[in-house]
Amino acid sequence: MRANTWQGKHNVRVERVPDPQIVNPHDAIVKVTLTAICGSDLHLYNGVIPSMQKGDVLGHEFMGEVMEVGPAVQRLKVGDRVVVPFNISCGHCYFCEREMFSACDNSNPAKSAGVDDVLYGHSGGALFGYSHMYGGYAGGQAEFVRVPFADVGPLVVNGHSDESVLFLSDIFPTGYMAAENCNIERGDVVAVFGCGPVGQFAIRSAFLLGAERVIAIDNVPERLAMARDGRAETIDEGQGGVLEQLNELTGGRGPDACIDAVGLEAHGEGPLGTYDRVKQGLMLQTDRPTALRWAIMACRKGGTVSIPGVYGGLLDKFPLGAAFAKGLTFKMGQTHTHKYMRPLLARIEKGEIDPSFVITHRLGLDEAPTGFSTFLKKQDGCIKVVMKP
Amino acid sequence: MPLITTIQTGVKRAAGAAVMRFAVRAAGKAAMRLALANPAVLFVAAAGVAAVVTRQALKNRPAQPDDDVLARATITVRAPRSEVYDLWRRFDNLPRFMEHLESISIDDDRHARWTVKEGPFTLRWTTEITEDLARERIVWRSLPSSQVVSEGRAEFRDAPGGRGTEVHVELRMGALRSSAMAAPLRALLKRFTSAQLAAELVRMRQLMETGELATGIFHKLTQRPSGRGMEN
Questions:
Q1: Residues of A in contact with B208 (CB under 8 A)
Q2: CB atoms B212 and A26 under 8 Å
Q3: What are phi and psi of B162, to 5 degrees?
Q4: Which of A97, A98, A278, A283 to probe by mutation at the B interface, max B CB count within 10 Å?
Q5: Which long-range contacts (CB under 8 A, 24 or more apart) does B95-99 make?
Q6: Residue A358 CA, distance from chain mean position
Q7: What Cα–Cα distance (Å) separates residue B128 from each residue in B89, B125, B144, B152, B154?
Q8: How far apart are CA B6 and CA A360, in angstroms?
Q9: Is the pTM of this model over 0.90?
Q10: Which distant-in-sequence residues (6+ apart) come within 8 Å of A8 by Cβ?
Q11: Reduced to 3 states, what is the DSSP secondary structure of residue B227?
């Protein structure tokens, strides 16, 4: 089959690779009908995530048709049309039972889990197409994918175009969980830092969850325009004075909750931005937390900072004093995708939202290298790229 | 900027190798091979946990002749204490999730023969169970006549709040009688760390909670799993 493979920094290549096979009894094989490039794929593309190997198949947002099921698969059937969550979860461990699916105890092969234990203390669940640290599973930017624990993850979808349900695999639940983590109450003002696809879904989810106003911050005109389409008020970060504007827009109170939908590769500004880049260059810091610092400084007293990520390692100049002085709550983590897929599908079916709004580029799988480059450089008004194998 | 480049190179060279060694020992070589694609990032993360890594490294230093190796690990599994105890009580179950073991055969209620392969060499020893407290503790040791000195202890406790069973395992391996096996035993002891044992307990949990060993493979073709499960 053809698959988009990682070949090094800023180097992906579509190659012929062997078709996946049933390996474990609960596996299924899915034929991919639509897939996408995620903002977190860019961390792989930029060489920032360790444990990638040349030839690794990328992609964790995908959907398609079930072609084959293993002998222990009971609910999923050949021919089912499914959206597959980007996390791999066993459904039976302490964490899956509590709907903390991204923390699954059993989906990461033990050797990979050992690496995470050194870096993080405890390892999380595996992901599709996201390095050997996350299990070494082949991803969905391909014609076929092996899907473990097939009765747990894949969601059967009927009706609706591929484009309107694909994002149940990752970015819609991610934006929604980020908004849910804000503990939104009536009258709340929510600030969303970063208007990439996750930020766009966080904006719309915040309104679905009852926010009165959403203020969105970015520096790319098309992304700010798309945020305004979602009823957000916008701040152009490129003009400076982000904290002052947030203060002004909230009557001096600060937003009730702040969502950091930018993550570890934030663009910096001013002396701290330079500081971050120098520290990264000297390998004394792995993550650049510009948006996170803003979120902490802006947030009102007793408010919530919600972090859908992604962060990977260590960062510096973290204003913990400000967070403490204001009594902030932090909620963060990889999305527990499975928990949200059914309720969000219901919202799509009721017409509350059509997620396909976020798509700006439609390519064939063979154009993946162009898609990555365009997405990274934010060229041509690029916000979200989908690809058809 | 040449100065920054020089500093970068110096920092990399001076610290990178040492920290990598610690990190490799702590996490097991197989696991860390996975992470070596971006040593820069790994270095920073490892530096951040250097204290923990150093302690681990001292515990898991490679065996010298006449040195004991002690591996210790703990895991909580969602299964009743009786079920976990029953699994361990039959030692021939252990190779299903303990990769360092080739096979174990049961001789009688208290004796079992363990086989380990190290390259072209095969190490064998017989153990006897010295303490057996049903659903609580199993303690065993190699017979005095064995070429490998090996002791083990598995304890089973209820985890709080209905979380299942805590399994606490200690395995000690040590000096040989016969010098013919010295080299392969040293190689085995080098590989056998607490991190290795912890990974094996993770495999036990996968088997008990899901009935499968998690196997992540990229596009490489593999065969159907053997009885012992796939190697990654």
A1: none
A2: yes
A3: 70, 20
A4: A283
A5: B95/B228, B96/B207, B96/B227, B96/B228, B96/B229, B97/B200, B97/B201, B97/B203, B97/B204, B97/B206, B97/B207, B97/B213, B97/B229, B98/B200, B98/B203, B99/B196, B99/B199, B99/B200, B99/B203, B99/B231
A6: 14
A7: 12, 10, 10, 10, 14
A8: 43
A9: no
A10: A47, A54
A11: coil
**Distance from the B225 Cα atom to the nearest Cα atom in chain A, whole angstroms:** 7
- Which phi and psi angles does A360 have, rounded to 5°? -115, -20
Task: Decide if B101 contacts B115 (C-beta within 8 A).
Answer: yes
Q: Please list every residue in chain B whose beta carbon sits closer than 8 Å to the beta carbon of residue A16.
A: none
Can you name the residues that pair with A341 across neighbouring β-strands?
none
> Cα distance from A362 to chain B (closest Cα, Å)?
25
* Token pair in block for residue B129: 């169970």
Q: What is the pLDDT of residues A206-241, one digit of tens each?
A: 999 999 999 999 999 999 999 999 999 999 998 989
| Size of the A and B interface in Cβ pairs below 8 Å | 185
CB burial string A147-157: b at 16+ within 10 A, e below? bbbbebbbbeb
Summarize pLDDT for A6-58 with one digit per residue, the tens.
999 999 999 999 999 999 999 999 999 999 999 999 999 999 888 899 999 99
Kindly state the tokens that stand for B230: 């796939």
Residues of B in contact with A137 (CB under 8 A): 216-218
Q: Which residue has the tokens 């500081």?
A: A275
* CA distance, residue A137 to nearest chain B CA (Å): 4
Cα A3 from Cα A129, distance rounded (Å):
11
Nearest to A329 by CA among A211, A217, A181: A181
- The H-or-E segment that residue A329 falls in is strand A329-332
Report the C-alpha gap between A129 and A139 in whole angstroms.
4
For residue A62, give the nearest of A143, A126, A136 by alpha carbon: A143
Distances (CA, A) of A8 to A44, A50, A189: 9, 11, 42
* Percent helix, strand and coil across chain B, each to the nearest 5: 45, 30, 30
User: Phi and psi for B227 in degrees, rounded to 5?
Assistant: -60, -25
Q: In the structure encoding, which two tokens stand for residue A172, read together?
A: 């819609």
ipTM rounded to 2 decimals: 0.88
| Helix, strand, coil % in chain A, rounded to nearest 5 | 35, 20, 45
**Residue B126 token pair:** 């017989």
Give the span between the Cα atoms of A84 and A145, in whole angstroms: 10
